[in-house]
């Protein structure tokens, strides 16, 4: 069953979760609905921060920091730069046909219903969490896992980034005019 | 020794053929003709050797050369069987063949392709020998098809004329219809007895106790169809008159004396098979009689000298089949031999006439040639008397025996055969009177050039005329003087005609036959000599004689029923079936194309649509996985 | 050490992720602006990441976080390339409305 | 010494020919063609001495595929046909100029290589690869060097390509299924399978589709006439002389032993299809205006008879079919070459525009006539031996089959003689017809000589193929 935290008897952790969750969802919605792309981007930044908050809540400090650096720091800056490069504002938004809206809403509802229904029906075992007290998510442990077990994928990730970099440079370079 | 001589016998004409094919042109006409003739004479001499030997020892010779085809349990050997029948056949094949080669030497001398003519003739003799001496049905089949091929080549010898080519093609295809019958007959025999060899076949049949007569009858019937094709019997006879398109020596050799008797040879050879199928024998007899009559009636009104002889040949072959059907194989063989003599003589004589008139074949434009061509006239007269059954000439004896046998078995058949022979007498003398008596009706130019043919042409005529006169002595109607029956006796399992003396009935019949012949001649004399009637022009022919003149329209009917049908069918297949099949295959491609055409509209580039589909798909998959787990 | 999930419950994280993901999907379908579409995709990615981390805590296993790490790397690369593409599209077409990007259709 | 050498020789030949350049290509190709013929004869000799000339090695471990080339009498007979015809075909093209001839001749050798591989392969997947490989060169040969309107040609050739490819895919499916059952593609392992009759039926049908299109049997023949007409004569020779035999060979080697129950159950139907092909092909051939199309339909009729022979499932039928395959291979190559010779002089393939050639060139006429006679199976030609044996086997099943199949000797004579009459005979043609050149003459004489030699003495070939056919026959009759 859905376990709704009782706000009256909520622990601080639960309250923090609720607040963070609300911020996350609200800013996500706002990202989508705001007409100005710059606003969207800023809402998205807030959304990412709240997700980082979730990570912190889950005691994943390293990830939270990385998340802020990568998403809020790098990716969102990229977005903002792009938006500014293109000089986008509200006028650029075209009229959306009704069928598009309908389709979007239908798929939103559908996917929500399917996912939630499945989740409810699959009756997950809730509440019995073990905590061995073992350290599993400190930077030290993560580093060991990453560089021992996931050595090769790690290297591949770096190659991927390199390739992406080169690709980006190539793509965004202004093409020489054809002679 | 025997093997070597047999090989010489078979291969001499083939060698002649090869030399003429490869070197004929450079050797010149005379040499190539000489080679052609000599090679056949060599065969003739070799045949004589075997004839002497077999006539003395009465032992057939089997010569096996090499394994040819293997089918299941049958190993077909390429071998020869020289016995009474084959040697007898070889005698007149090579003998008459040699004479006709000699004749052609002069007859074809003006033709630029004389060497290939001799090559084909030699090849024909080779295949004919193979047909006759083969020790099994497959070697016979080689010869059988081979002579068909040579007949094709020789009918179409003047290949620039497409009508001649059509005639050649027609002959070949009609022969092949018969060949299919023969082939099927061979298959059935092979399936039944696991052998195709004559000797072992005979042993198998005579030794067997319970024979499958049903299948044997079918086999016999199929073989008979083969014989029909080759020997021009109803319904496959129409090619033979058309085959007269070939040079006259060819008509004499192939289409009168030798090849067309192959069917009779085959049936005689396999007499032990046919004896087991009495129904088929009855069919053979009836077909033979009908053919004799129908061909004779058509022969009554023909104006082309060679056509008359062609129908006469068909008619005579019908008589032979009648004899075969009645089980009187030796009688048929006897008639084959005498017929070979007088018919070859008649054809060669007509050739001499045509030669003298520079290619004119229409009897309405002949007449009065008696004085200009005395030797031709006399020899042809003798042959005509022989074919008409005038006593003491060879034809009298052989034809009389057939009529006798027919009378013994069935009166209607005898009546039909008798009518046919009366007609024979009539149209033969119609031919004689129109050609040789009264005044010449051709152009003055032709009249000026009228002359007797050279010695090379007349010599064979004389020889054949002599043979046509005295040929009857080999089988006189008196048992003690009947050499042929005794000679052939070992071949036959049962004696068809009881040896009997001549009673009063027989004498009566003989007299009747002679009277019939004389009446036929008399009518012809009155009509064409006394009254000097000249047959009407083509357009003026009316009534029943028009039907006869147009050969009962059989060619037209065949054309309409078979040739036209098959051609229309071909057109239908080509234009309708082929295109629709093709369209069907293209249809598959079209359907795929159409699906693609409409399918591509879904791929319209709208990411929204893609995503929507993606979401739906995702939901579907997740739901499916989830529901499947339940 | 006390497991934080005892207080919040994994199911809440799942709901949160699902809704976040759906918002992302909705955004992609709803908006025509390529940049916003991109942002929506980022939201979807983050929804998944969040779930990874939650389950990592649930199982007390570092692997989940490692995956998040990789997915961030991929996301970074993707955004870089994607935005570069958008820039060049904008240069060529003068707009980044995805309705205009129909050259691939058959 | 084993058969892989032959394949290597042909492949190397193809490469060397390509590298030799346009001028030398034809001669190099001819050299390699002759070398492979020599190699085949040497191999044949080794085989007859009882040596093992098969070759097998592991090729792919997962899935379990071997590079297995097995040479028995049947395979060797077909290989002999291929390697004997290849030099003849190459030699026959000497009178023509082809642009980019190095590629042309290399493709011929490559095709020869693929077909030889098909005849030798005893591993299902390897066989399939060779089978499809043979399609590629003929596609290019027909497309690039073909004649007629380029658009029409493309249509016909692409149709042929897709059609045969689609058919073959079903065969691949069948092979995959068999592999799943047997765990190996090797023919010996596949033979050991005990398939239920319904499985056999499906496998039979899958194979049938592939082979019926390739052979082709009616009603799958629609690609044939057009491709024959459009392809250059060399391509037509390769197609009709050898490639069709791939289908027929495969019926004997793969289809019948793997699915004998189905073959037995549908025996009358299968023979009926073959015989229908005989009659239909002959009748359609009657009224063809194009010489090559006529020959294509005659080919349809002949392969109909051959396949009817194979489906009799008797030793005679199989033996007759193999003999007839070889004979037909030679005769059809000869006849297409005749068409090419006429085309070189008159620039036409329409029969109506020919005629009156005989008077100008007696040698050519004689050779042509001999080929025509061989085609109508006159006794003493090789075709007669094959046709007779096949018809005999048909008569063992049912006399009516023999009668209906035997119509080929009537109808065949009809359309062939009609064709001969209107191409060669008649009033002398006004256009000059130069007599055959030495090259052309030698090619035709060679073909005719082969046909007549084996027509009189087919024993060597009969002895070569009979043991392997008996083996296949025991395989066919293993379940009863």
UniProtKB/TrEMBL annotation, chain A:
Enzyme class: translocase
Membrane topology: Multi-pass membrane protein
Record bears the keyword Membrane: yes
Reaction(s) catalysed (UniProt annotation): a quinone + NADH + 5 H(+)(in) = a quinol + NAD(+) + 4 H(+)(out)
The protein's Enzyme Commission number: 7.1.1.-
Keyword flag Acetylation: no
Coiled coil: none
Record's GO cellular component terms: plasma membrane
Major site of localization recorded for this protein: membrane
Chain segments annotated as transmembrane: 12-33, 40-58, 64-87, 99-120, 150-171
InterPro entries from the UniProt entry: NADH_UbQ/plastoQ_OxRdtase_su6 (IPR001457), Nuo/plastoQ_OxRdtase_6_NuoJ (IPR042106)
Domain of life (superkingdom): Bacteria
Keywords: Cell membrane, Membrane, NAD, Quinone, Transmembrane, Transmembrane helix
Locations listed in the record: Cell membrane
Single GO MF annotation: NADH dehydrogenase (ubiquinone) activity
PANTHER family from the UniProt entry: NADH-UBIQUINONE OXIDOREDUCTASE CHAIN 6
Similarity comment: family membership: Belongs to the complex I subunit 6 family.
Function of the protein: NDH-1 shuttles electrons from NADH, via FMN and iron-sulfur (Fe-S) centers, to quinones in the respiratory chain. Couples the redox reaction to proton translocation (for every two electrons transferred, four hydrogen ions are translocated across the cytoplasmic membrane), and thus conserves the redox energy in a proton gradient.
Protein name, as recorded: NADH-quinone oxidoreductase subunit J
Automatic annotation (TrEMBL), chain B:
GO cellular component, one term: endomembrane system
Keyword terms of this UniProt record: Membrane, Transmembrane, Transmembrane helix
Main location: membrane
Topology of this chain in the membrane: Multi-pass membrane protein
Keyword Transmembrane helix: yes
Species of the source: Flavobacterium restrictum
Protein name: NADH-quinone oxidoreductase subunit L
Transmembrane portions of the chain: 6-24, 31-52, 87-105, 117-135, 141-159, 180-201, 213-240, 252-274, 280-301, 308-326, 332-354, 375-393, 413-434, 455-478, 507-526, 607-627
Compartments, as annotated in UniProt: Endomembrane system; Membrane
GO annotation (BP), single: electron transport coupled proton transport
NADH:quinone oxidoreductase/Mrp antiporter transmembrane domain location: 135-424
Pfam family membership, one: Proton_antipo_M
GO molecular function (one): NADH dehydrogenase (ubiquinone) activity
UniProtKB/TrEMBL annotation, chain C:
EC number: 7.1.1.-
Protein role: NDH-1 shuttles electrons from NADH, via FMN and iron-sulfur (Fe-S) centers, to quinones in the respiratory chain. The immediate electron acceptor for the enzyme in this species is believed to be a menaquinone. Couples the redox reaction to proton translocation (for every two electrons transferred, four hydrogen ions are translocated across the cytoplasmic membrane), and thus conserves the redox energy in a proton gradient. NDH-1 shuttles electrons from NADH, via FMN and iron-sulfur (Fe-S) centers, to quinones in the respiratory chain. The immediate electron acceptor for the enzyme in this species is believed to be ubiquinone. Couples the redox reaction to proton translocation (for every two electrons transferred, four hydrogen ions are translocated across the cytoplasmic membrane), and thus conserves the redox energy in a proton gradient.
Subunit structure: NDH-1 is composed of 14 different subunits. Subunits NuoA, H, J, K, L, M, N constitute the membrane sector of the complex.
Catalytic activity: a quinone + NADH + 5 H(+)(in) = a quinol + NAD(+) + 4 H(+)(out)
Subcellular location: Cell membrane; Membrane
Name of the gene this protein is made from: nuoK
Annotated source species: Flavobacterium restrictum
UniProt keywords, alphabetically: Cell membrane, Membrane, NAD, Oxidoreductase, Quinone, Translocase, Transmembrane, Transmembrane helix, Transport
Keyword Translocase tagged: yes
Domain of life according to the entry: Bacteria
Gene3D superfamilies assigned: 1.10.287.3510
From TrEMBL, chain D:
Molecular function terms from GO: NADH dehydrogenase (ubiquinone) activity; NADH dehydrogenase activity; ubiquinone binding
Positions of transmembrane segments: 6-21, 28-47, 67-91, 103-122, 128-148, 160-180, 200-220, 232-254, 266-287, 294-313, 325-343, 364-385, 397-417, 438-457
Annotated GO biological process: ATP synthesis coupled electron transport; electron transport coupled proton transport
GO CC annotations on file: endomembrane system; membrane
Record domain NADH:quinone oxidoreductase/Mrp antiporter transmembrane: where: 122-407
Pfam families: Proton_antipo_M (PF00361)
Metal-binding keyword on record: no
Key words, A-Z: Membrane, Transmembrane, Transmembrane helix
Topological category with respect to the lipid bilayer: Multi-pass membrane protein
InterPro entries: NADH_Q_OxRdtase_chainM/4 (IPR010227), NADH_UbQ_OxRdtase (IPR003918), ND/Mrp_TM (IPR001750)
Compartmental location: Endomembrane system; Membrane
Family per similarity comment: Belongs to the complex I subunit 4 family.
NCBIfam families with a match to the protein in the record: NDH_I_M
Protein name (record): NADH-quinone oxidoreductase subunit M
């Amino acid at each position: 069953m859905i376990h709704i935290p009782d706000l009256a008897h909520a622990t601080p952790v639960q309250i923090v979760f609720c607040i963070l969750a609300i911020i996350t969802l609200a800013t996500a919605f706002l990202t989508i609905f705001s007409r100005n792309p710059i606003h969207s981007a800023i809402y998205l930044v807030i959304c990412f921060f709240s997700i980082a908050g979730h990570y912190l809540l889950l005691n994943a400090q390293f990830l939270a920091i990385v998340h802020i650096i990568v998403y809020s720091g790098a990716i969102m800056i990229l977005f903002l730069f792009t938006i500014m490069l293109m000089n986008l504002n509200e006028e650029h938004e075209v009229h959306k046909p009704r069928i598009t809206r309908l389709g979007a809403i239908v798929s939103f509802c559908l996917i929500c219903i399917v996912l939630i229904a499945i989740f409810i029906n699959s009756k997950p075992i809730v509440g019995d969490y073990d905590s061995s007290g073992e350290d599993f998510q400190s930077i030290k442990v993560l580093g060991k896992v990453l560089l021992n077990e996931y050595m090769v994928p790690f290297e591949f990730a770096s190659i991927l980034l390199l390739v992406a970099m080169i690709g980006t440079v190539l793509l965004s370079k202004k093409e020489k005019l054809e002679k | 020794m025997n093997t070597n001589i047999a090989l010489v016998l078979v291969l001499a004409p083939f060698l002649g053929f090869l030399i003429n094919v490869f070197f004929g042109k450079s050797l010149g006409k005379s040499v190539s003709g000489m080679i052609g003739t000599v090679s056949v004479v060599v065969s003739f001499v070799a045949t004589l050797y075997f004839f002497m030997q077999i006539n003395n020892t009465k032992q057939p010779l089997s010569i096996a050369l090499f394994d040819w085809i293997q089918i299941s349990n049958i190993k077909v050997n390429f071998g020869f069987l020289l016995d009474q029948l084959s040697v007898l056949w070889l005698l007149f094949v090579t003998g008459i063949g040699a004479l006709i080669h000699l004749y052609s030497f002069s007859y074809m001398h003006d033709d630029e392709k004389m060497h290939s003519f001799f090559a084909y003739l030699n090849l024909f003799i080779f295949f004919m020998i193979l047909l006759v001496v083969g020790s099994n049905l497959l070697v016979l089949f080689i010869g059988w098809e081979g002579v068909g091929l040579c007949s094709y080549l020789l009918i179409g010898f003047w290949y620039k004329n497409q009508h001649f080519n059509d005639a050649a093609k027609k002959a070949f295809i009609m022969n092949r219809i018969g060949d299919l019958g023969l082939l099927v007959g061979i298959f059935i025999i092979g399936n039944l007895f696991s052998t195709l060899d004559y000797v072992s076949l005979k042993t198998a049949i005579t030794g067997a106790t319970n024979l499958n007569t049903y299948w044997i009858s079918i086999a016999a019937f199929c073989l008979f169809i083969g014989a029909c094709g080759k020997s021009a019997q109803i319904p496959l006879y129409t090619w033979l008159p058309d085959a007269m398109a070939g040079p006259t020596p060819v008509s004499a050799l192939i289409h009168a004396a030798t090849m067309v008797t192959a069917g009779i040879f085959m049936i005689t050879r396999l007499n032990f098979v046919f004896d087991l199928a009495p129904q088929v024998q009855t069919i053979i007899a009836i077909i033979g009689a009908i053919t004799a009559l129908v061909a004779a009636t058509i022969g009554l009104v023909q104006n082309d000298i060679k056509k008359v002889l062609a129908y006469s040949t068909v008619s005579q072959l019908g008589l032979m089949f009648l004899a075969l059907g009645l089980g009187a194989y030796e009688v048929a063989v006897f008639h084959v031999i005498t017929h070979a003599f007088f018919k070859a003589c008649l054809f060669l004589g007509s050739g001499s006439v045509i030669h003298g008139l520079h290619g004119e074949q229409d009897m309405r434009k002949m007449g009065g040639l008696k004085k200009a061509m005395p030797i031709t006239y006399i020899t042809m007269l003798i042959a005509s008397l022989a074919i008409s059954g005038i006593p003491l000439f060879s034809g009298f004896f052989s034809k009389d025996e057939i009529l006798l046998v027919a009378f013994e078995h069935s009166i209607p058949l005898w009546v039909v055969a008798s009518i046919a022979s009366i007609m024979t007498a009539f149209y033969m003398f119609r031919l004689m009177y129109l050609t040789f008596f009264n005044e010449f009706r051709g152009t003055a130019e032709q009249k000026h050039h009228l002359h007797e043919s050279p010695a090379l042409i007349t010599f064979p005529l004389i020889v054949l005329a002599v043979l046509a006169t005295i040929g009857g002595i080999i089988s006189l109607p008196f048992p003690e003087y009947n050499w042929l029956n005794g000679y052939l006796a070992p071949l036959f399992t049962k004696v068809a005609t009881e040896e009997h003396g001549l009673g009063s009935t027989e004498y009566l019949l003989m007299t009747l036959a002679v009277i019939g012949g004389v009446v036929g001649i008399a009518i012809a004399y009155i009509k064409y000599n006394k009254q000097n009637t000249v047959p009407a022009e083509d357009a003026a022919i009316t009534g029943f004689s028009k039907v006869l003149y147009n050969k009962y329209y059989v060619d037209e009917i065949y054309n309409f029923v078979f040739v036209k049908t098959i051609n229309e069918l071909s057109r239908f297949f080509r234009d309708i079936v082929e295109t629709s099949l093709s369209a069907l295959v293209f249809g598959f491609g079209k359907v795929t194309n159409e699906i693609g055409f409409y399918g591509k509209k879904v791929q319209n580039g709208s990411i929204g649509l893609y995503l929507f589909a993606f979401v739906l798909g995702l939901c579907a998959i997740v739901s499916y996985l989830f529901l499947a787990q339940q | 050490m006390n497991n934080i999930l005892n207080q919040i419950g994994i199911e809440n994280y799942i709901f949160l992720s699902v809704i976040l993901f759906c918002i992302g999907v909705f955004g992609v379908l709803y908006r025509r602006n390529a940049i916003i579409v991109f942002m929506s995709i980022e939201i979807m990615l983050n929804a998944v990441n969040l779930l990874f981390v939650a389950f990592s805590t649930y199982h007390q296993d570092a692997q989940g976080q490692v995956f998040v790490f990789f997915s961030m790397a991929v996301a970074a690369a993707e955004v870089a390339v994607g935005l570069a593409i958008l820039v060049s599209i904008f240069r060529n077409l003068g707009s980044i409305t995805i309705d205009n990007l129909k050259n691939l259709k058959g | 010494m084993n058969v892989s050498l032959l394949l290597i020789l042909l492949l190397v030949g193809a490469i060397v020919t390509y590298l030799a350049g346009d001028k030398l290509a034809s001669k190099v190709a001819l050299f390699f063609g002759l070398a492979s013929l020599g190699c085949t004869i040497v191999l044949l000799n080794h085989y007859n001495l009882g040596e093992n000339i098969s070759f097998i090695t592991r090729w792919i471990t997962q899935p379990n595929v071997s590079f297995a080339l097995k040479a028995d009498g049947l395979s060797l007979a077909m290989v002999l046909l291929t390697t004997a015809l290849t030099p003849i075909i190459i030699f026959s093209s000497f009178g023509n100029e082809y642009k980019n001839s190095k590629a042309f001749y290399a493709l011929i050798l490559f095709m020869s290589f693929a077909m030889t591989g098909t005849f030798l392969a005893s591993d299902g997947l390897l066989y399939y690869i060779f089978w499809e490989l043979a399609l590629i060169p003929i596609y290019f040969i027909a497309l690039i060097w073909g004649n007629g309107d380029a658009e029409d040609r493309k249509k016909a050739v692409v149709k042929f390509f897709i059609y045969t490819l689609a058919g073959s895919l079903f065969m691949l499916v069948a092979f995959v299924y068999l592999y799943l059952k047997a765990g190996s593609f090797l023919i010996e392992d596949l033979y050991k399978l005990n398939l239920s009759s319904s499985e056999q039926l499906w496998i039979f049908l899958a194979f049938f589709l592939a082979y019926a299109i390739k052979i082709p049997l009616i009603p799958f023949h629609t690609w044939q006439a057009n491709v024959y007409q459009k392809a250059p004569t060399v391509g037509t020779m390769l197609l009709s002389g050898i490639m069709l035999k791939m289908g027929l060979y495969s019926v004997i080697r793969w289809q019948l032993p793997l699915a004998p129950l189905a073959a037995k159950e549908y025996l009358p139907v299968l023979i009926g299809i073959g015989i229908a092909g005989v009659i239909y092909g002959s009748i359609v051939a009657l009224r063809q205006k194009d010489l090559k199309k006529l020959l294509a339909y005659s080919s349809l009729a002949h392969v109909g008879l051959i396949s009817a022979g194979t489906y009799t499932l008797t030793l005679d039928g199989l033996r007759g079919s193999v003999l007839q395959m070889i004979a037909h291979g030679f005769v059809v190559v000869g006849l297409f070459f005749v068409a090419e010779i006429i085309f070189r002089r008159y620039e036409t393939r329409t029969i109506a525009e020919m005629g009156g050639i005989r008077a100008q060139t007696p040698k050519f006429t004689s050779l042509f006539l001999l080929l025509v006679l061989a085609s109508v199976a006159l006794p003493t030609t090789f075709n007669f031996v094959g046709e007779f044996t096949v018809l005999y086997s048909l008569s063992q099943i049912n006399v009516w089959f023999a009668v209906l199949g035997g119509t080929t000797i009537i109808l065949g004579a009809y359309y062939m003689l009609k064709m001969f009459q209107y191409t060669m005979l008649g009033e002398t043609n006004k256009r000059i017809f130069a007599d055959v050149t030495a090259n052309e003459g030698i090619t035709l004489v060679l073909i005719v000589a082969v046909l007549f030699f084996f027509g009189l003495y087919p024993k060597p070939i009969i002895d070569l193929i009979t043991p392997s056919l008996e083996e296949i026959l025991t395989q066919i009759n293993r379940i009863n």
